[in-house]
Amino acid sequence: MGFVIGVLTAFAILMIRDSISLMLAAVGEAYAERSGILNLGIEGMIMLGASIGFVVTYKTGNPYLGFISAGLLTGLLGIIMGIFVISIGTQQHVTTLGFTIIGSGLSVYIYRLSIESLGGVPPTVEGFPRIYIPYLTDIPVIGPSIFGQPVAAYVVVLIVLFLHWIMEYTKLGLHIKAVGDNPKAADTLGVNVFMIRYLAIFIAASTAGMAGAWLSTAHSNMFLPNMSMGRGWIAIALVSFGMWNPLKIILGSLLFGGLDALGSVAQTYGRNIPYQFLQSIPFIVTILVLIPIARRAKVPKALLKPYRREEAE
Amino acid sequence: MRLPEIIVERREPLPHYKLIIYYIVTIIIGFLLTSLATIPYGLDPFTALYLMLKGSLGSKYGFSETIVRMSPILLTGLGVAIAFLVRFWNIGAEGQLYVGALLSALIGVYISLPKPLHILVASVAGLVGGALAIYPSIYLKQRYGVDEVVTTLLSNWIYILWISAILHFYWKNPLTHWPESPYIHDSAELPRIPGFGRMHLGFIIGIILIGIYYIMYTRSKYGYELKMIGLNPKAAYLQGMDVDKRIFIAALLSGALAGLAGAYEVMGVSHTIREDLSPGYGYSGILVATLGMSHPIGVFLAAFFVSIIEIGMLSLQRTTGIPYPLAMVFEGSLFAVAALTQLYSSYRIRIVWRD
């Protein structure tokens, strides 16, 4: 019985931790896609955020500062990417894929430049403190997973709920969706298409950066090259899976996070379970989900299309 | 406050020579920007460039390693180029490469045949593997209209995870107990080119395939039709072309060539399939196809260029301690350079300052 509780607790903790990084990155990605930009740079931006978050936390001892720096600096990279895909209008998938490669290269470069190597053992940071609420945290399984996570987890949940509110209930959200569906019409109505897209790409990049910082200062307390391990691609999958709706994406990330956690738990406790098959399920499910919605009008219509005033239809 | 605004306007396409000049200039700017990162290591950009070239081309060893690196990139680049020609955005070359490698490794390990035949069958297995790997994405695109960027991208991870599972749980090497397949038979190994280290026949075959692509691209009706489909699918359709069928074949071929790249990595270099068989040859292929604008000569030169950078940076890391990932930063910036230059060929880009 103790063993079962142990496995369940490990699973629940990991599920929440995995979902936290996924929901943050994916809700941000939804902003980019909703405004008409497919951001394939997300995987690299997560790695960059992980590196910046770790380095800043390591140097200052303050994980909050690491979290914020990761968001801002990665957001800056998003703005640079925006110059290409928004203002100039280069091909989005090629350009943004390039930024994934830039981000992953830069992440290792920054890390190695800032942190002395200690003979192969990666240094760790203290990271975010975990909360403890008397009684609640002591409940088996649910307690440590829901009421005992690092502080940043609750900040992230607030951020994604806030982003959901903006997208679905405010004028700004309406503008973002308008820009992604029909930029010409939005422009005619006086919406600044370029500004809105820059804002969306900044949000997408900085949430990816913060998701990375979560990985290196809360999920685990060290930085490893390629530590996002496909989470960026899962986030892209999640956006389609959740049909570009932040709340559905948040719920979907719990599901995908659960699958990922199942994989990790299988890896730890069951030596002979090929956990990689579990890990591939989110990708397969997403592709299957895309089939019925592909021909429906759910996909932002201006996705992948640069906006140029002179030639707008 | 005065703010810059970028104005992009359509214009007559630039002549080729001008485009090439712009290309080279933007690549140099990208290099200079990236090379600023060598300064904290006490190395100025020009010394860094010199050391990179010395490491990748300056010795027989360096040169042969550059060619070894170039062999798979040439094939994935060629494959992606063909798909991009008809605007099928295949981002999945990495996964296709692994599936091709897996099938050719199966043939290499479990079947015994005389040498030339074994190589042939294992190569075909690689082609088939790559084609099988891309097939679902083509089917979903043409049958249901599912965007191929997302499906090919996600399929990379599906295939890589499955192969990882196979190597960890079902097909470990009994000699090394590593997650790698047993070694393939000698008869399935690609012959090496004498006197050039690890350089193998795969490179020569890559050159031949580029040559065939060149003829198709410049002289054949088929190549003309593919280009036409890429430029204006509606017009191609109105001229009576079976557009979907041609896109289908081009995309299938694209996957097959990526699969062949994987097969040759197994048959020519590692003689087993590992999880880290490819350091991103599929993604480099996308870069090479874009940089080379799907043109055969462009693809060849871009593949050579990218290989020089990678081998040069590996050598720079060994001699000066500058981290290799800097090569990735440069390569990533080349994606933007390539996309920018392609746009520049038919658009004018101006920056104006407005109040």
Descriptive report:
The complex is a heterodimer of chains A (313) and B (355). With 313 residues, chain A is mainly α. Chain A folds into two domains: 37-116 and 127-228, no CATH class; 230-298, no CATH class. Helices cover 72% and strands 0% of the residues of chain A. Chain A has helices at 2-34, 42-60, 63-88, 92-114, 142-146, 151-169, 171-181, 183-188, 193-219, 231-241, 246-269, 275-294. In chain A, helix 3 (63-88) runs antiparallel to helix 4 (92-114) and helix 3 packs antiparallel against helix 9 (193-219). Chain A is globular, with a radius of gyration of 20 Å. Chain A starts with a helix and ends in a 19-residue tail after the last helix. In chain A, 56% of the residues are buried. The model of chain A has no long low-confidence stretch (mean pLDDT 88). Chain B is mostly helical and 355 residues long. Chain B has a domain at 75-279. Chain B contains 13 helices and two strands; from the N terminus they run βαααααααααααααβ. In chain B, strands 1-2 form a two-stranded antiparallel sheet. The mean pLDDT of chain B is 90. At the A-B interface, helix 3, helix 4, helix 10 and helix 12 of A face strand 1, helix 5, helix 6, helix 11 and helix 13 of B.
Sheet of most strands of chain A: none
Distance between the termini of chain B: 6 Å
Largest sheet of chain B: 2 strands, antiparallel
- Greatest contact between two chains: A-B, 55 and 56 residues
User: What's the helical proportion of residues of chain B?
Assistant: over 70%
Q: What is the count of helical runs of chain B?
A: 13
Overall geometric form of chain A: globular
Count, helices of chain A: 12
Total count of strands of chain B: 2
Q: Please compute the radius of gyration of chain B using only Cα atoms.
A: 21 Å
Please report the distance between the alpha carbons of the first and last residues of chain A. Answer: 66 Å
